């Protein structure tokens, strides 16, 4: 403890150097930690669903192209019945209805899902309930409202359950409220959060149609089934359907993609470039700090000579200088992490605008551990 106090006093005496070093380190470590939080948000384990690695999106596709296309309702029925490697399978879509209620009418982004969709995700309502099978055929559709939308638009802090709202001219009742951090697994380009979620109700003449292609399909593969096994079974089923319905399915088969790949794949190259750029910035920071340490070392030649004359060996002198660098590294790391925490909302806004709106930026424990790692590496780079 006495040794640490001596180090801190020495750095305080040379306060100009210490302040410049800590601020420089904070900017370098803060920048690479900020990029880490963006990259970490796009990790499959961070998706806010139960066992997200088991979730798969199923599409129709032309053999040899592997380009996804929307699915016909009749094919959804066959897939649900025939795919043994799939534990659950639900269809969904996106809608842009006009909603009227307590506030002025507005156009919102809404999800339309089959009952059981949220149990497939492992997401439950924080108030009220999720959809049941009766919601599919009831005369009056029900609605689920995202937490922020419900509180901001349906009257502030009042209870939104059983509130009636008008959606495209029809009266609906709010039966549940989604968690505030709910992210809809939308593979499209919609940037707005899903304010409303309502049950998918198809006209009877569409339920078995193979001509109208407008659905997305989310499935959960069984815990004992691998992705390769699911794909093999899907290919075989696609061939059988092509033979049974040559007019509608003759040129299509089934494409299975992990949900995380579908949601994040187009952003990963950009995130990789940002990661390398942040690493390069940290290297420049460490190089500049190394130069500052060398310049400071030139001024301390007499001090080091006295220490050596008093019996301090080379290893002890090196240890002393590394200890000073460690103190600077810890101070810079703490300040850098605080900068990331302060700017977390801004990072989340940038992420939601330019990257995947499904990913959730969090400067939590993983970011703190990364900050400590970056600070340790920085100390070695500029201290040695």
Polypeptide structure, described:
By secondary structure, this protein is an alpha+beta fold. The protein contains 15 helices and twelve strands. It has helices at 2-13, 15-41, 73-82, 117-121, 134-137, 147-153, 204-207, 227-244, 246-249, 259-264, 268-299, 301-309, 314-342, 344-354, 365-383, and strands at residues 55-61, 86-95, 98-100, 106-107, 110-113, 127-128, 142-146, 164-167, 170-178, 196-199, 216-221, 253-258. Strands 1, 2, 3, 4, 5, 6, 7, 8, 9, 10, 11 and 12 form a twelve-stranded mixed beta sheet that branches. A hairpin with a 5-residue loop joins strand 3 and strand 4. Helix 11 (268-299) crosses helix 15 (365-383).
Strand residue content = 15-25%
The level of helicity is 40-55%
Order of helices and strands: HHEHEEEEHEHEHEEEHEHHEHHHHHH
Provide the gyration radius in Å: 29 Å
**Mind describing the biggest β-sheet?**
12 strands, mixed
Shape: elongated
State the separation between the terminal residues, measured CA to CA: 23 Å
How many E strands?
A: 12
């Amino acid at each position: 403890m006495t040794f640490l106090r001596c180090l801190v006093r020495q750095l305080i005496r040379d306060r100009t150097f210490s302040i410049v070093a800590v601020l420089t380190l904070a900017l370098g470590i803060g920048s690479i930690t900020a990029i880490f939080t963006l990259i970490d948000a796009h990790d499959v384990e961070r998706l806010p669903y139960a066992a997200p690695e088991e979730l798969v999106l199923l599409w129709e596709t032309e053999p040899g192209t592997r380009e996804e296309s929307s699915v016909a309702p009749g094919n959804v029925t066959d897939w649900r019945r025939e795919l043994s490697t799939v534990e659950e399978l639900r269809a969904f879509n996106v809608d842009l209805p006009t909603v009227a209620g307590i506030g002025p009418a507005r156009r919102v982004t809404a999800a339309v899902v089959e009952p059981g969709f949220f149990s497939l995700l492992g997401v439950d309502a924080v108030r009220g309930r999720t959809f049941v099978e009766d919601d599919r055929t009831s005369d009056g559709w029900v609605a689920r409202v995202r937490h922020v939308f419900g509180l901001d638009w349906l009257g502030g802090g009042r209870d939104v359950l059983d509130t009636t709202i008008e959606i495209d001219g029809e009266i609906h009742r709010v039966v549940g409220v989604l968690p505030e951090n709910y992210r809809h697994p939308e593979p499209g380009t919609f940037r707005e959060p899903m304010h409303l979620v309502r049950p998918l109700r198809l006209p009877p003449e569409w339920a078995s149609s193979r001509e109208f292609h407008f659905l997305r399909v989310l499935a959960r593969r069984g815990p004992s089934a691998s992705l390769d096994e699911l794909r093999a079974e899907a290919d075989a089923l696609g061939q059988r359907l092509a033979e049974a319905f040559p007019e509608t399915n003759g040129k299509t088969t089934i494409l299975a993609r992990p949900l995380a790949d579908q949601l994040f794949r187009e952003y990963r190259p950009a995130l990789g470039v940002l990661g390398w750029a942040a690493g390069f910035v940290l290297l420049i920071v460490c190089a500049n700090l190394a130069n500052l340490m060398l310049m400071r070392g030139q001024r301390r030649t007499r001090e080091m000579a006295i220490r050596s004359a008093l019996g301090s060996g080379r290893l002890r002198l090196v240890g002393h200088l590394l200890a000073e660098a460690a103190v600077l590294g810890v101070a810079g790391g703490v300040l850098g992490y605080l900068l990331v925490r302060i700017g977390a909302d801004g990072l989340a806004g940038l992420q939601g605008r330019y990257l995947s709106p499904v990913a959730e930026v969090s400067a939590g424990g993983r970011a703190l551990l990364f900050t400590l790692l970056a600070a340790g590496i920085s100390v070695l780079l500029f201290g040695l």
